[in-house]
Specification:
Structural class: mainly beta
Shape: globular
Number of strands: 32
Number of helices: 2
Length: 360
């Protein structure tokens, strides 16, 4: 989850959540009933991971993770978690690590969790919880022995940070860094933090963190991207997306690891992830704005930056739906979670065609 800053009545710059209040209401108001084998209902799919022919998707209502078989496209099981919304998920050493982030009380107050749930994949039940920091968001695999979690604090007086979990002992090591978004490549963690001055001018600081030596190296010092929306690193390049000010299309910018800019192109509304497809191209996931059904999937040539923002719609005769959240390449298919449409798209990169899973 990204952040922005606003001016308080006292003149202080306060960090707050980028999701508008109407989006919080949408989470509560969404009313699809989705039966699972246990008889619970589920809605608002968020983040996605995969292993051994199964998809694992975090869902807001109820706070849970569902398991989907990739062959039959059916929901097989559901693991209920706590009372806060689950976000990032990652599979490591036979377990699923799920970030438990925030929720809102009936009187409108926000509450924040500080845990990562550990779900055993064999029993598909919670086996442990790990305290990492307030309001955890993304969970990424560093290697077979470690996962990393970023947390955002309470967007006011309690700051965010980044923690590494040893998947065997469940010991936690704090890195001393705050990363609003992060990407792992070849055992190193790339991320950024953002801040605003008294005139609301944004600044972003980029870093590469090496867990093996516990050292952080500044990167992209002169890249000129002061308001990033996500960072994605693969194939020897760093891809930054920007949010377009939430009123217009954002863009994707490609940099070599040494910071040399390679290209820039305009994507869709709120581009939030760049996913390499292994053929010299990548999908760009554009979240879209809530209630507008304008989430989209673009395809970009990684050598030239030439982008096709109609790749998905031209192949399928429709858009993605209402707020796309995450995507994953697994088994030759790209799986996309679309939160308020309560769907998961199964996209074939060979022709951009898609089969839609409704978690009903």
């Amino acid at each position: 989850m990204n952040i922005f800053y606003k001016q308080s009545a006292e003149g202080k710059s306060l960090r707050v959540c980028t999701l508008p209040f109407i989006l919080f209401l949408a989470i509560v108001a969404c009313n699809h009933d989705v039966p699972t084998p246990e008889g619970e209902t589920v809605e608002t799919p968020r983040r996605i991971a995969a292993a051994d022919g199964k998809l694992y998707v975090s869902c807001y209502r109820p706070a849970s993770v569902i398991r989907i078989d990739t062959a039959s496209h059916t929901v097989e099981a559901q693991c209920l978690l706590g009372t806060c919304n689950p976000e990032g998920v990652a599979v490591a050493a036979g377990s699923l690590f799920v970030a438990s982030s925030w929720n809102q009380t009936s009187n409108g107050d926000f509450i924040y969790d500080d845990k990562v749930y550990v779900v055993d994949l064999t029993s598909f039940a919670v086996s442990a919880t790990v305290t990492v920091g307030l309001n955890p968001q993304q969970v990424k695999v560093i290697d077979e022995n470690h996962v990393i979690v970023n947390y955002e604090g309470n967007y006011a007086d309690l700051p965010g940070g980044t923690a590494i979990i040893d998947v065997a002992s469940l010991d936690v090591t704090q890195t001393g860094l705050h990363m609003a978004s992060m990407s792992v490549c070849d055992g190193k963690v790339y991320g950024y933090s953002t801040s605003y001055d008294s005139d609301m001018h944004p600044t972003a600081e980029y870093v590469c963190y090496d867990p093996a030596t516990a050292t952080a190296t500044p990167i992209l010092r002169d890249c000129g991207v002061t308001r990033p929306y996500s960072i994605n690193v693969f194939g020897g390049n760093i891809y930054l997306t920007t949010d377009g000010g939430y009123t217009s299309n954002g863009d994707v910018q490609c940099f070599a690891i040494d910071g040399t800019r390679r290209w820039q192109c305009e994507a869709g509304m709120l581009p939030s992830k760049v996913l390499g497809l292994g053929d010299g191209s990548a999908y760009v996931l554009n979240e879209g704005t809530w209630g507008s059904n304008n989430a989209s999937l673009s395809r970009v040539d990684l050598a030239t930056g030439s982008i096709d923002n109609t790749a998905f719609t031209a192949a399928n005769g429709r858009g993605l739906g209402d707020v796309a959240q995450d995507m994953l390449l697994y088994g030759g298919k790209v799986y996309v979670t679309v939160s308020f449409s309560n769907t998961i798209e199964v996209v074939d990169p060979s022709d951009n065609s898609s089969v839609q899973i409704r978690i009903l």
